[in-house]
Amino acid sequence: MDNNEQGGFTTKQISFFTICLVVIIGAIFGYKYYTSTPEYTLKIVIKAIGQNDLNTFNKHVDLHNIIADYYDNVLPYEVNKNTSLSKLERKMAMDYLNDMRESHITELESDIKKSFTVNNNSKSNNKSKNNLSDFFLKNSQQSTTYNGIKAKRFFNKDLCVISLDFYDNDLKDNFLVDLRMQKLADGTWQIIKIDNVLDLYIKFPK
C-alpha cells in the first residue's frame, strides 16, 4: 500500500474529508449559537407578526408585562404633570388607576391579540384587514426608519437589553427602543418590557 494511502484513501482525500467535517461541525455549532441569540428571536417575532402567528408571538413577547410596565410608568406621569389637578385630585386619579389597573391592562392586551384574527375564507384579493400586521402599521410611527441593532447589553447569560436604532423623519432625530429580554428554556428569548418606554412616550408628540 502506498504510504500516502490509509485504508484505500489517500492522504489528500483524508485531509479534504477532515476539512469538510470541521466546516460542517462549525456551521452546525454556529447555527445553534445564532438560533440562541436575541437577534434570532427578534426575527421570529417579526415573522410571527407578519404571519399572524399568535402562539409564537405569545411565546416570545410577554405582552401583558409590557403593557403593565407602560401603564405603571406613563399614566402616573400624565397624572402628575397635570398642574390643574389638586393634590387630592391626583391621589383620587391614582387610586382609580390602581383599582382599574388589571382590567385596563387585560383589555388592551385582548384588543391587541384580537388583531391576530384573520378571515382565512377571504379571497386573496379581499383579505381581512383585521390582523396584527395592520394593527402595527396603523398604530406605529409611519415616519420612522429602522437602522438595526445599536447595542446589546447582557446582565447575565439569561437577561439582556437590545437597543434598536430608529430615525424619525418628523423629529429629524434618531431614537432607541430598549427591549429587555429573558432567555427561555429552549434557548430562545422573550421580550419582557421596553426599558425606556417613558422616555419614548415623552419624546414623541401626541
Task: Quickly list its features.
206 residues; alpha+beta; 4-stranded antiparallel sheet; two-stranded antiparallel sheet; 7 helices; 52% helix; globular
Describe the 3D structure.
The chain is of the alpha+beta class and 206 residues long. 52% of the residues lie in helices and 21% in strands. The chain contains 7 helices and 6 strands. The strands form 2 sheets. It has a 4-stranded antiparallel sheet with strand order 3-4-5-6. Strands 1-2 form a two-stranded antiparallel sheet. A hairpin with a 5-residue loop joins strand 5 (173-183) and strand 6. Helix 2 (38-50) runs antiparallel to helix 3 and helix 4 (63-81) runs antiparallel to helix 5.
List the helices and strands and how they pair.
Elements: E1 5-6, E2 9-10, H1 11-35, H2 38-50, H3 54-60, H4 63-81, H5 87-114, H6 132-139, E3 144-156, E4 159-168, E5 173-183, E6 189-194, H7 197-203
Helix pairs in contact: 2-3, 4-5
Concise synopsis of the structure shown:
This protein has 206 residues and is of the alpha+beta class. The protein has helices at residues 11-35, 38-50, 54-60, 63-81, 87-114, 132-139, 197-203, and strands at 5-6, 9-10, 144-156, 159-168, 173-183, 189-194. Helix 4 packs antiparallel against helix 5 (87-114).
Our measurement of the CA-to-CA distance between the termini, rounded to an integer number of angstroms, reads: 83 Å
Helix content: 40-55%
Structural class: alpha+beta
Number of helices: 7
SS strand fraction: 15-25%
Poorly predicted runs are 27-31, 118-139
Shape: globular
Strand order of the largest sheet: 3-4-5-6
Largest sheet: 4 strands, antiparallel
Quaternary structure classification: single chain
Q: What is the ordering of alpha helices and beta strands?
A: EEHHHHHHEEEEH
